[in-house]
Write a structure and sequence with these properties.
It contains 4 helices and 5 strands, in the order αβββαβααβ. Strand 2 and strand 3 form a beta hairpin. The longest helix has 24 residues. The chain has one domain. Strands 1, 2, 3, 4 and 5 form a 5-stranded antiparallel beta sheet that branches. The chain is α+β, with helices and mostly antiparallel strands and 148 residues long.
C-alpha cells in the first residue's frame, strides 16, 4: 500500500490531492430497528478485511510521517445498508466474500459466519413487527491529503 501511495504522490500535480476512503477496521453491527427500539442481531466481520483496513491506516500514517503528504482534513462518517430480509443480507455478504476473499480458508470461514449471522437475524426478523428495518452499520474513514 505504501508503494502505491508513493506512486500516487509522484504522479499528482503539485496542486493535486488524494482522497482516501476505506472502512474502519471494526466489526459491523447488524440491527433490527422497530418502533423506536433497536435489537442487535450480531456483528459482521472478516478478519482478513479488518487487517487490510488497518494496513491502509498504517500506510497513510507512514506516508504522512515521511513527509510525502499532509493531511488537510479527515473524518469518519456512518454508512448504512438497508435490507428487506435476512436472505437478502446473506446474499450480499456472500457476494462480497466471493468478490474479495483472497483464499479458500478465509472464504469458507466467512461464509459460515455469514450463514450463522443470517440465521440469527432471520429468527429476530420473524418475530419483528411489520415495518421493521434490517440495517448494517459501517463506519468509513475519509481523508483529503495534499502532496508536500
Amino acid at each position: 500500500m505504501v508503494h502505491a501511495l508513493e506512486e500516487i504522490c509522484r504522479l499528482l500535480k503539485p496542486t493535486g490531492m488524494l482522497i482516501d476512503m476505506h472502512p474502519v477496521a471494526e466489526a459491523l453491527p447488524v440491527e433490527i430497528h422497530q418502533g423506536g427500539k433497536t435489537d442487535l442481531t450480531g456483528y459482521w466481520s472478516v478478519r482478513q478485511w479488518r487487517m487490510d483496513y488497518q494496513q491502509a491506516d498504517n500506510a497513510l500514517t507512514e506516508i504522512v510521517q515521511r513527509g510525502l503528504f499532509a493531511v488537510e482534513r479527515e473524518d469518519i462518517f456512518d454508512s448504512f445498508t438497508y435490507y428487506d430480509s435476512a436472505a437478502e443480507l446473506l446474499t450480499d455478504l456472500k457476494e462480497g466474500i466471493e468478490k474479495f476473499a483472497r483464499d479458500a480458508p478465509t472464504a469458507d470461514e466467512a461464509v459460515r459466519d455469514a450463514e450463522a449471522l443470517a440465521a440469527r437475524t432471520d429468527e429476530l426478523m420473524q418475530a419483528a413487527v411489520s415495518g421493521a428495518e434490517l440495517i448494517m452499520h459501517e463506519r468509513i474513514h475519509i481523508s483529503r491529503l495534499r502532496p508536500t
